[in-house]
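pinned: reference chain
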Amino acid sequence: MYELIYSKQAKKFLNKSSANIQKRIISVIERSRIRPYPHVKKVVGSKYYSLRSGDYRIILDIVDDKLVILIIKIDHRKKVYKKTIS
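pinned: its structure tokens
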């Protein structure tokens, strides 16, 4: 099972979100801990992956040799891709 590490930005978004949104996002992330690749899509032009949770997207990086998933950014689907992720 992969270990989850949240960035400051991801933690801040979760803390500001309502309880329903928090539960939904966390359950999607937890579901992908065992085998993440069937649940994620590669972000075009980036080394990161995107995980869908309703209208929200979770941008993450998967480090296979250490079994770590780095949660980089969580935001609404219209905003998450605005700034270039490289």
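why pinned: Helices lie at 8-16, 19-31. Residues 19-31 form the longest helix (13 residues).
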